[in-house]
Write a structure and sequence with these properties.
Elements lengths: L12 H19 L5 H45 L2
């Protein structure tokens, strides 16, 4: 398997560290495994490279749908204001 360049950025290092700590906690609590920061970062990178685009595209699709619904509602309200 060819390693892709990491194209995902976080808002801040604190946000990235929060995600890494969540991964470490998951492995500890749910799997009774101890992993370190490097292993958690590799896991996060793998997850984002493998699934990130699909998750991002789904979020964009959901946003478009919501905006379309809101625009339709706005058009109806504007029509009601017209004489």
């Amino acid at each position: 398997m060819q390693k892709k360049k990491n194209k995902f950025e976080f808002d801040s290092e604190e946000t990235k560290l929060k995600f890494l700590n969540e991964i470490i906690g998951f492995f500890h609590d749910d799997r009774s495994e101890e992993i370190g920061l490097i292993a958690a970062e590799k896991f996060l990178d793998f997850f984002l490279q493998t699934f990130g685009d699909e998750i991002y595209n789904k979020a964009i699709k959901d946003c478009k749908k919501l905006l379309k619904e809101k625009l339709t509602d706005l058009e109806v309200e504007l029509e009601l204001l017209s004489p």
